[in-house]
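Supplementary material to the annual report.
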Amino acid sequence: MNRTLAILLRNPLSLLGLALVALVVLSAISADFITPFPEHAGAVVDFANFNKAPEWPYIMGTDLVGRDLFTRIVYAYRISLILGVVVLAIAVPIGVTIGLVAGYFGGWVEYVLMRVTDVFLSIPPLVLAMSMMGVLEPTLTNGMIAVTAMWWPWYTRLVYNLARSEKEEGYVLAAEVIGASKAHVMFREILPNCVPSILTKMTLDLGFVILIASSLSFLGLGVQPPTPDLGSMVADGAKYLPDSWWLTVFPGLAILVAVFGFNLVGDALREILGAEQ
Amino acid sequence: MSAPTLLIRDLKLGFRSYAGMLEVLHGISLHIAKGERVALVGESGSGKSVTARIVLGLIQSLRSARVSGLVEFEGRDLAKLSERERHALRGTRMSMIFQDPTSSLNPVYTIATQFHEVLLRGSPGISQAEARRRAVAALDDVAISEPERVLDSYPFQLSGGMNQRVMIAMALANEPSLLIADEPGTALDVTVQAQTLTLMRDLTERHHTAVLFISHNLGVVREFADRLYVIYKGRIVEQGPTAALFDDPRHPYTRALLQAVPRITGGGIPEIEDASEAYFAPLVVREGFGEPGRAG
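Predicted assembly:
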């Protein structure tokens, strides 16, 4: 534990990452209390104050129907985080299980599973998600499904490679010799040894899931109005550049902060877990 | 006379590959009586380790392997047992120790957790506390002075010698009747190797455990085994009691093997022919040490 702290403190970037992630997560959780106009997260219009440059109490200005941008960004964080967590909560168990089975069993099982995975990996992720969203209705749930479908193969490939090398370790053979079941060997012997890598990738990915989800809604295929979303905010504001710059700049910065923060934390985590191995 | 703990008769093993069948074992026969310590000696690739794995039933499940011949464990033909029954024998009636003790223990669990899992095989439903009590006793037996501290350690926090003793304790925890030791301690230095061998010898004697000791180290074998099988390229070439075999090797390959050991007194590395027609000479069995109940 002391070592963990020492590594964190030695690297100022890790601290910055932690601070950014804390900022994003805490603001998303307490959105109802810290935003000046919580009702602006929905379908509200206030034409008296539309398209205002940043000034008190609209610290980041207002959008084209007079809603507070700061409020909407904080609520968009909430949506993005939920999406990220749900996507990973579905994609990681699926990907990890398939990777474990393929890596441990080998033979034709491995061949079939990994070739299917390769097919998913061969399609550019955004294109796959876009085509899925094109067929499905663009809603938050379908957005999650689309992003999940493109995300699990990365975990399959990661865990497959780890499992391939771990299964050659002596403890796997030792477990088989004393009569451990295949499920026991996979989930109780091999999986715990893969956890550091999986955890690191998850933290890094949380940022990327937010980025991909924003890309989708930037293209109009993600979360639909009036639900606030960083990607669609950037897309809406882009038409009014450079005059109404706040419409684009603040949501864009918000995406940057989230992705950058999770990346720094992921790097720090890799260093900590790697050092303790 | 009761059935021997392990009886192998005319065991053949081949692997099917794209180039056809690759014969690995050409009909080997050996037997181990109850409580007997038997060594299987041979060079790398001679088929020692696969023999051990066949006994444990690990090779039979490979699709490419073709096994024929008789393998009887305590009078039961392993080939006639179901997968389930064979599975039930592993870890309870027979267990195994490996070359590298540190990698044989999972680095993410403490010794206590892994000991608990081993004991669960023998006594399903055993509680954490009871398992811990038995683990302490077992570690005591292998001369570990602070069993409580060791139990709360992870494998990488212990020395190789400690891990080896933990492995021995685990392997004997369920009182198996057969212990297969696949080159135990090869990864350790010689002083530690000597200690663990003495320990293993005492413990197996006390528990009346039969041992199949697989090794290429003749010095170790001489100290440990009652009886010796020499294996060369998938064939048993000579067998007999350890002392007699060392004093009077009768098979050309055994003689070559004994000469190949570098002397501590110096004199350079001995020059031995790598392969010779003479090594394929027929099996030499000492009088009175053939398989019981069979001529030869």
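The radius of gyration of chain A is 22 Å.
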